[in-house]
Specification:
Blueprint lengths: L2 E7 L5 H14 L4 E5 L6 H4 L15 E4 L2 E5 L2 H8 L1 H13 L4 H7 L5 H16 L4 E5 L3 H39 L7 H13 L3 H5 L5 E8 L2 H16 L4 E9 L9 H18 L4 E5 L7 H13 L14 E6 L2 E7 L8 E6 L2 E6 L2 E6 L11 E5 L2 E5 L1
Parallel strand pairs: 1-5, 1-6, 2-4, 2-5, 6-7, 7-8
Antiparallel strand pairs: 3-4, 9-10, 10-15, 11-12, 12-13, 14-15
């Protein structure tokens, strides 16, 4: 089974550079590796200094960057037309009928989240083909990364709860609606395309939460706002069941006691130590602010050396299941690691076979095991950063 490494963090902290260096180091260890970027603002090819045009993503296909190493920038527009043809055309038609020009309608029809589903399709494809030993995902900024890992459960919920209902409503109401309105309902091709899309990502959700296959590495900087977002990301990834195995503190200034950056150095020293304490026992590694722009394989090698010191980048630096079910007498205990969360921030609800946990604007549907379905929630409390729910 290939190893999956997700690289996430606040925008601008150096995720792509760390992703590229990780991929390079994996390839040098003999792992057949691909680094995939699905951030709409691609810079992966630029990181390797590949001779490409400003908007040339090689048609969304992988490019060989070094021995054992391919890199890929997903071309969302092309992939949508290839895999979402009927869906895309229906949405574009709706936009056109609302008064938008054809060109604008085609752009607006690219719904947020499509790039996540396309990335999931590629992950599933590469996992089933066995072409690569390591898949490094250069994720968009934190909130989009969280949408990516939650997309599978959202789609699964829709397929289980709504898909057939929506399909049957349109099937029976469509002929009647045509007699009274010009509003275009989707036809059977639309629903067939939707089902084919669901089938292409079937099973990838289990891979993303498999602690023997997948982990997240969070890239941060020794600055208060960045650290706060990293804490939130750490908590949300745990909520979604994806393990974080390493924290990368990027762009630490050299330790110079005097000079223009002396206050920055002192602040970074304090914040870096806070990061180590916040995320313990998850290990941290520090990267300096290099004396040159990190572009091309030669400079990426410097980053790789600082990150891994000759070790295997594909190893798990920390293991621990984000959530577990255990039997307690006649009942069950669900524990979810949610550091940095206060109980007042939580909203927990039960909907038949799902438990819905909401924190802020994010929510997670936790499918309950069959043995738990007949039991009611007895209590929920936070204990040392762990949510304990008893059934």
């Amino acid at each position: 089974m290939p190893r999956i490494i997700l690289m996430s963090g606040k925008g601008g902290v150096g995720k792509t550079t760390v992703s590229a260096a990780t991929g390079l180091a994996c390839a040098q260890k003999g792992h057949r590796t691909i680094v995939v970027s699905f951030d709409l603002a691609h810079s992966l090819f630029d990181c390797f200094d590949l001779p490409r045009g400003l908007f040339d993503h090689n048609g969304g296909e992988p490019v060989r960057a070094a021995e054992n190493l391919d890199v890929q920038e997903i071309d969302v527009q092309m992939e949508i037309e290839k895999h979402w043809g009927d869906i895309y055309r229906y949405l574009a038609m709706l936009m056109t009928s609302s008064g938008l020009t054809d060109v604008i309608a085609e752009e607006v029809a690219v719904i947020p989240g499509m790039e996540d589903v396309i990335a999931l399709m590629y992950v599933n494809k590469y996992m089933s083909e066995g072409k690569y030993d390591v898949i490094v995902l250069d994720c968009p900024p934190t909130s989009e990364s969280l949408r990516f890992v939650s997309m599978t459960s959202t789609i699964e919920w829709y397929v289980r709860k709504r898909f057939n209902v929506d399909r049957n409503i349109v099937r029976f109401a469509g002929p009647i609606a045509k007699r009274f309105t010009d509003y275009k309902l989707p036809d059977e091709k639309y629903f067939t395309a939707m089902m084919q899309l669901f089938e292409r990502i079937t099973g990838v959700d289990k891979m993303l939460v498999d602690p023997e296959t997948t982990s997240v590495r969070l890239v941060t900087q020794a600055e208060k706002m960045v650290i706060r977002e990293t804490q939130r990301a750490f908590m949300y990834f745990n909520m979604y069941g994806v393990a974080v195995d390493r924290i990368v503190i990027n762009r630490l200034l050299p330790d110079t006691p005097d000079g223009y950056y002396s206050r920055w150095v002192k602040a970074q020293t304090v914040y870096a130590q806070e990061v180590r304490e916040y995320f313990d026992p998850v290990p941290t590694v520090s990267l300096p602010l290099f004396d040159d722009e990190v572009i091309g394989v030669r400079n990426l090698q410097r980053v790789a050396d600082a990150l891994f010191s000759g070790g295997d980048p594909a190893q798990f630096y920390h293991k621990g299941a984000p959530y577990t079910f255990t039997k307690e007498g006649e009942g069950y205990l669900l524990t979810i690691n949610l550091p940095f969360v206060d109980k007042s921030d939580l909203d927990i609800s039960r909907h038949q076979e799902d438990l819905t946990i909401r924190i802020g604007t994010f929510k997670r549907h936790v499918p309950l095991p069959r043995s738990v379905l007949s039991k009611d929630v007895q209590s929920a409390k936070m204990v040392d950063g762990v949510l304990q729910i008893r059934f």
